[in-house]
Amino acid sequence: MGASGGAADAGRKRMRPAEKGDLFDVLPDELVVAVLCKLSASAARPADLVAVFVVCKRLNRLGLDPLVLARASAESLAASAKSWSDFSHGFLKRCTDSGNLEACYILGMIRFYCLRNRKSGLSFIAQAAIQNHAPALFSLAVIQFNGSGKSKIDKDPEAGVALCARAASLGYVDAMRVLGHCLQDGYGVRRNLAEGRRLLLLANAREFAAFLHSSSSSSPLHRHANRRGSLLKDLDLWMRSTPPPEPHPANRFLAEWFTSRSEVLNGEELSLCSNGGCGRLETRRHEFWLCAACNLVKYCSRACQATHWRSSHKAECVPFEQWLDATAGDGEDEAPMDGGAGGDGLVLE
Fold first, then answer.
1. Counting beta carbons within 10 angstroms of the beta carbon of residue 65, is it exposed (0 to 12), middle (13 to 18) or buried (19 or more)?
2. Distance between CA atoms of residues 167 and 249, nearest Å
3. CA distance 119 to 17
4. Strands annotated E in 238-322
5. How many CA atoms lie within 13 A of 284 on its CB side?
6. Greatest CA span in the chain, whole angstroms?
7. Which partner from 28, 157, 318, 337 sits 20 to 30 angstroms from 46, CA to CA?
8. 322 close to 289: Cβ distance less than 8 angstroms
9. Phi-psi region of 89 (alpha: psi -120 to 50; beta: other; left: phi over 0)
10. At what angle do helices 249-259 and 101-109 cross, to 10 degrees?
11. pTM score > 0.85 for this model?
């Protein structure tokens, strides 16, 4: 009995370190940081990171390691406009200092459009664009096309086209679409109808492929699209049947920020881009482009015009019948344009 009792006591003693969590304490910092890097890169919302930071002092310290912050995903950095604070701003700034391109872009957009710190915001956006961050490249293009933050005479279509071309080469659909219209219209670049047409079709095909990849294989649209030889025909079906792509967290922040400040915008007579997922606000009166048909909605770019046309404006724009002949056979199910930020169909006030 004595011997067996002693063995039992020894077993209990051996279990105590595990029960107290001492095994975690002896893990090397490098290993914990590596795990946290994977977590931050795959986090789907800010709460995923916060939940780790509040577990214990060690995880809080290692979670703020520059390697972890540098890999944080865009969704994990998706700040809420309603709960924006100095802490939120400081955390994003800490991520930018760690080299996180998504943080650079998000903070740059917030500073440029929401906080109206144009120089600082532009610097952060450019910091991401230099590292080939496609949304940042496209946003810089929109700023150049519209002369945002400056006067009307400061528009630079050639610079906008160059930035769009770089973003398009990285597969960014909005940039492909805007560049395609610029080529078709000779806006900021030598006119090339064939190349413009190719880019517009490629943009549609990429969006269509992304939708099929994310949708259920059992959906009617997915089954129809998988029939041999039906891809081009299904592009039109997709245009009519699918919702617009999910906006970037930076655009969601802008939309939420300005929606809650409508009275201020009305007082300044500035307009939001009519594409609800964009969130960009004019930096001066009459900066954005009007729909050439109804003169009721405004867009910061042709990409936003195309998205809004598919999602709702096609059914609202009047007179609707004139689009039937204008768009027949061109593969672009959207309103015709008269010139502007990336193509025909928008008219400047």
1. middle
2. 18
3. 55
4. 289-291, 298-299
5. 15
6. 98
7. 28
8. no
9. alpha
10. 20
11. no
Sign of the C-alpha dihedral computed for residues 186, 202, 215 and 135 taken in this order: negative
Nearest to 92 by CA among 116, 115, 114, 108: 108
321 CB neighbour count, 10 Å cutoff: 7
The answer to whether the beta carbons of residues 173 and 202 sit under 8 Å apart is no
Tokens, residue 215 = 């949708």
The residue type of 334 is: E
pLDDT in tens, the chain (349 residues): 455 555 445 444 444 444 555 677 788 888 989 999 998 999 888 888 888 888 888 888 988 899 999 999 999 999 899 989 999 999 999 999 999 999 999 999 999 999 999 999 999 999 999 999 999 999 999 999 999 999 889 999 999 999 999 999 999 999 999 999 999 999 999 999 999 999 999 988 888 777 776 665 445 454 554 554 455 555 555 555 566 678 999 999 999 999 888 776 777 789 999 998 999 999 999 999 998 888 889 999 999 998 888 888 888 886 555 555 555 444 445 554 444 444 445 544 4
Residues 188, 159: Cα–Cα separation, whole Å: 8
How many CA within 13 A on the CB side of residue 83? Answer: 6
Write out the two tokens for 206.
Answer: 């990429």
